Amino acid sequence: MPILYEDRSIIAIDKPAHWMLVPFTWQRTDHNLQAAITSSIAAGDFWARSRNLKFLRHVHRLDADTTGILLFARSQGGVDTFSDLFEGRRMEKTYLAVVHGAPKETQWTCRAKLAQDPQQIGRMRVDEKAGKESETHFRVLRKGASTTLIECHPVTGRTHQIRVHLKSGGHSIVGDELYGDAKADAASSWKRDMFPLALRAVSLSYVDPFTRRKVRIAAPTEEFLQCFGFADSRPAGSMCTSTS
Questions:
Q1: CA neighbor of 177 nearest in space, from 150, 197, 149
Q2: What phi, psi does 200 have (nearest 5°)?
Q3: Residue 100: strand, helix, or coil
Q4: pTM (2 decimals)?
Q5: HSE of 118, CA atoms in CB hemisphere, 13 A
Q6: Residue % of the chain over a pLDDT of 90
Q7: Helix (H) or strand (E) holding 82
Q8: pLDDT band at 242, cuts 50/70/90?
Q9: In the chain, at which residue ranges do the beta strands (DSSP E only) sit?
Q10: Looking at the predicted structure, is the pLDDT value of residue 110 above 80?
Q11: CA distance 148 to 131
Q12: Which long-range contacts (CB under 8 A, 24 or more apart) does 156-159 make?
């Protein structure tokens, strides 16, 4: 897995699809990312040994089929400190999503409250009475023949937030088996092995809590854009390199 950025506190990787962030002891998948990394460090694999790594734990989560930037801390203190950035909404997050159809608005904000769906484990739903506060900003980047490329900025970090907020507006993400349009997906053609879900975390920006420096981590977008027919479309402020 490509390393996008690293310093004394954290390592950011470009997470591929299919890898899950589940408890270390969960044995029902060979794609337990935290378990694989922990085992690699214990085995003394070169990438870990060359960095003198003894500990590396994820700070936040991405869904199994979501690709892009995933942050790991090199100590428990780092996990706690960077978790506070996410929980305190001091981590600026940017995703790219490709949805079916064409939203009427070019920019909008969704504040629909989200809660677990009691009728299906693992699924979320809009619930204005019992749901938790949620907020996502959206901006249309480009419209295609039957799909639209959207830039997403989640303020809160609820489970499946971007996916449910887009679905609630009538435009599900391409490849979303839980909230999507199976008929529309069946009619589409893309590299499902590489991007089974058209959602990619492309940027994280924050003030480093230890050094007070502004850090911006970026993930490549070219393959994602090409895969979904937006190869000649580039988000504002090209997201192809990691900077700090």
A1: 197
A2: -140, 130
A3: strand
A4: 0.90
A5: 3
A6: 81
A7: helix 76-87
A8: very low
A9: 3-6, 10-15, 57-58, 67-73, 92-100, 107-110, 114-116, 124-126, 136-143, 147-154, 199-207, 214-218
A10: yes
A11: 28
A12: 156/89, 156/132, 157/60, 157/86, 157/87, 157/93, 158/114, 158/124, 158/132, 158/134, 159/114, 159/124
Name the nearest CA neighbour of 212 among 62, 121, 90.
90
C-alpha dihedral (202, 207, 38, 239), degrees to nearest 10: 20
Strands 10-15 and 3-6: antiparallel
Pairing relationship of beta strands 67-73 and 199-207 according to DSSP bridges: parallel
| Other CB atoms within 10 Å distance of the CB of residue 44 | 9
Surface-to-core class of residue 88, CB atoms within 10 Å of its CB (0-12 exposed, 13-18 middle, 19+ buried): exposed
What's the rounded mean pLDDT across residues 21-39? 75
The CA-based diameter of the chain, rounded to the nearest angstrom, is: 53
Over residues 18-26, the mean pLDDT reads 70
The answer to whether 201 and 183 have CB atoms below 8 angstroms apart is no
Report the distance separating Cα 179 and Cα 166, nearest Å.
10
The residue assigned the tokens 């690293």 is 6
Active site amino acids: 63
Q: Between vectors from CA 177 to CA 171 and to CA 183, what angle results, nearest 5°?
A: 65
